[in-house]
Structure formats: structure tokens, C-alpha cells
Amino acid sequence: MGYPVVRGVAYVLAHVPDLVRYGSKPEREIPKNPDLLSEIQDHLRDFSEARNYPPHQVFIGNMKPEELWEREQPWYENLISGAPRFGEWGEIYTEKEFYGWLKVADEFDLIYLTEEAAEEIETILSEHHLARPEHLEKLGDGVSRERVKELISGGALALEAEGELMGCIVDGHDEDENLTADILLENLSTKASGFLAVEKLMENIDLEREDIAFVINSGEEGVGDRYQRGAGNLAKAIAEMNGLSSSTGADVKAFCCAPMHASIVAGSLIESGVFDNVILVGGGSLAKLGMKMQGHLSKDMPIMEDVLAGNAFLFSKDDEVNPQIRLDTIGKHDVAMASSQQAIYSALVDKPLQKVGLTIFDVDKYSSELHNPEITVPAGSGNVPHNNYRMIGSFAVKHGLMEADELDEFEKEYGMPGFSPTQGHIPSALPFLGFARDRILKGEMKRTFFLGKGSLFLAKMSNISDGMSFILEANSASSSQD
Amino acid sequence: MFKGKKVLCIGERDGIPGPSIEKVVESAGGEPVLSVTQCFV
């Protein structure tokens, strides 16, 4: 029996343009500028534009990341005509569908749909294969539009779609600032998108729900009340919603590189024999909707951060088929290490490779933070994947394995363009896990290196950085048969 | 160039972190009055 395997993947997007206003940045800026809300609304994409957007098609598995390099930019103006909402391992949901799933996720009557919206959403969801009778029942009959307006005038947040009032979300407590409507909307959005990712994962794998023993949530939300802000275990709440009746769970928090930490924890739980099957899930980040909107508006381009993303992965004991996570050489950024980029990359890339006698060129692809540059560059935040590949390649230069003028070629061969929405933990390396697993299973690749960095300092508790990494490799059993 | 000057050190997660800039400024005779690291993603 060898190292644990990655047995399945799932990626989902929910296009939620009317929730952009509730992202952290828009929510702070709108009160300062009375014209801003209408300016935002004038720069939102409709569902077909979001569905046909090439990076979104890559995210759900319908296009190879490298194909983006061949496509004319800006990608938001060069859409794929008639692109499907269903992908190789994912799906893109509409806003009305997502409101339905938000309502299904709501156990505390926080969301009020109008009677008209409840009826419309029930019709929409009943045509979707994911919706089961118990889901439709949870949608309820709705309340009158007047009642919803009354609640909004009392402080509830409006939920709109395509210019219509669909409902609202109310505070969960009279005095608790951790249970306000905006925070609960954020947390329910993560829960609902995480649920959708796990549902998609269950479709993509050959296991029953009862076979799942543990769920790890690596999202960036902070679920809790005044006495335990961020206490979490959204993992178990998502598992409940997915009907994973034999499972429990816990959250792994480590800022945006939590998926790296969580992958290693999931692999370790399996390697030690504690569990056979562990799901890693991360739901979307409402707070990051419209985060870069000022850069986008200044260039009169669409507001690109209009989707909530979710992903889910199944880690299982070795099946002698699927690619394995090598637990003998994990990259980690130790407390005593410096926070310079050289020190971080040395810890995350150079050392783990050296430990098992590999060079930079023994890896087929490096997957780091895969932020879509079309979102970050217009806002002055640079091309994150491009910069990461130059840092990784610089170690090959330092070791005398290539020349500095070969860095661009290195990026083309060992890297990829960014294609992930800027949803915090979502871009952290794992958007490529579906492609890596697929290519390794087909024998097109042998080894992929995943690395993520986290901004630990943002919580004002420490000035140090963070990061972890691991290698995914063709199954040793299938390799030995070759 | 930093001698006797007060300096704002604004670093970046994917670039040079604030504390590193702070050390350089100090060694060059400057006085860091603020040192932060930002994350732009």
C-alpha cells in the first residue's frame, strides 16, 4: 500500500452579479459615493458572458489552461460562443439557482424569498438534476413582496436578480455583530457553494455518501458568534447538507494557502489509517466579490469578480491507480525562516525536491497561485502566476541548470496562465489538480508540484509569511508496471 | 539617501515584505515610521 491518492475533483462557479455590492470593497465604497452603485450595476456581466468567459471554461475543465495563451486578449471581449455550463468536472450556476441553494442552506429562517421568487426558483431547481424533493420543500412558499420590503427597511439585505427583488436576508441576533445579515450572507454563500462542489464531486466519483468518513473545509470564512468568532466547523455543516451521514469534519485555517495545509492533513489522516476517504472542500468568498472593481471601472471593463467559486477533492487510501500525494517530501515554511521570496521558495520548492533527489526539471508542471491576470493586472496587482514561475525558474538558474534568459521558456513549459477567480483560497494551486490527475492518469505527465503561500500577517498577529507544498505523482503501482 | 529621513515601508506578499524593507532602511540610516506587508490578491 502506497501513499494516499486523489480519487476525484470538482469545481463550481456561481455567477452572482447582484451580490457584488455586498463584497467587502464595494460595501465600503458605496456609502462614500452615491453614484457608485449604479456605476457598478452598469459594469456587471450577464450569465452568458460569465459562462462564455474562457478562464471560467478552464476552471470547470472544458479547456486546457495553456489554451488561454493562444487566445486573443482581453478574454472578456473574446468569449467562447455557446460554451456549456457543464464541464468535465464542474458547473456554472445562475444567480437564481444560487439563491435557491442559499435558501436550502439556511437552517434558521434568515432568508425570506418573495412568493413569486419561491415559485420561480422551485421551477428552476426542479429542472436541475441536483435538486431532491427535500431541497424543494425547504424553499417554502415565500412571503409577500411587501413583507420583504418591510424587512429591508428594517435593515435586512435585499437579494435581487435581473432587476427583480427576490428576497432578503435578516440579522441572526439583535446585538451580535458576528451574526449580522452581511456576515451570515457571507457564511451561507460559502456553505452553499461548498455544498455544490461536494455534490458535483459525489457525481464524479464511484463511492457512496456513507463511504466518506471526514470532511475538511479550507475556506476563508469566519463562522461563529460573539463568544467564538471564527470557531468554524463549516465542514460539518456542509457535510450535513450533502447528506454525508457517516462523516464528521473540521476546518483547517491558514489564510489562502489553507488548501495546501488541508491536503497534507487529509493525506496524513489516510496514511495513518485513521480514515479511508476524506473530502477537502472550499466554498466561495463573498467578501472578495468586486475586490478589484476600482481598477476595472477605471478601465471601463466589466467587474470581473462576479462569481463565487467552490472546489472539492476526494483523498483516499492507495487504489494503485490514481496519482499519489508524496508525503515523504512536504514543503513548509518554518517559523525561523525569513519571509523573503528567496527563503519562501527555497523552503517550498528547492528543499523538498532536493530531499528526494529531484531537480526542478523532474517535475512536469508547477501549480502555484493561479489568479486570473485579467482580474489582477488592471488593478495594479501584477500577474501573480507569471511572477511565481520566474521565482521557481530562478532556482534552476541558481543551480546552473539553465540560463536567466530561458525563464520565459521555463514558464511556457513548466507553468500555465492563471485562470482562477480571485476568491482567496480557491486560486491556491489546486485549480490545476483536476488537470494534473487527468494528465497523470493518461500517462501524459508523471509529476506535478503544488505550492501555496498565505498572508498570515493580515490578521495582525504576526509579521511572518506562510506556505506549504506537495508533489502529486503517478501511482507507484502503475509506474512499476510500465 | 535615507540618512536622517523618516520612511514608510510598504511591502508586498509576493514581492519584498515590509520587515525586509525596514531592515534595509535602518541599515541605510533611515528611520522607518511604518512597516507593513500588503496582500494584493
Describe this structure in words.
The complex is a heterodimer of chains A (about 475) and B (about 40). Chain A is of the alpha/beta class. Chain A has a domain of about 160 residues: Peroxisomal Thiolase, Chain A, domain 1 (3-Layer(aba) Sandwich), CATH 3.40.47. Chain A is about 35% helix and about 15% strand. Chain A is built from 19 helices and 14 strands. In chain A, the strands form 3 sheets. Chain A has a 6-stranded mixed β-sheet, sandwiched between helices. In chain A, a hairpin with a 2-residue loop joins strand 4 and strand 5. In chain A, helix 6 packs across helix 7. The longest helix of chain A has 24 residues. Chain A is globular and about 70 Å long. Chain B has about 40 residues and is of the alpha+beta class. Chain B has one domain. Chain B contains 1 helix and 2 strands. The mean pLDDT of chain B is about 90. The chains are: A alpha/beta (about 475), B alpha+beta (about 40). At the A-B interface, helix 16 of A face helix 1 of B.
Strand content of chain A: 15-25%
The helix/strand class of chain A is alpha/beta
Name the shape of chain A in a single word: globular
What proportion of the residues of chain B is helical, as a percent range? 10-25%
Query: How confident is the prediction overall: mean pLDDT of chain B?
Result: 90
Tell me the number of helical segments of chain A per DSSP (H or I, 4 or more residues long).
Answer: 19
The top level CATH class name of the domain at 324-481 in chain A = Alpha Beta
- Major sheet attributes of chain A: 6 strands, mixed
> How many distinct beta strands of chain A?
14
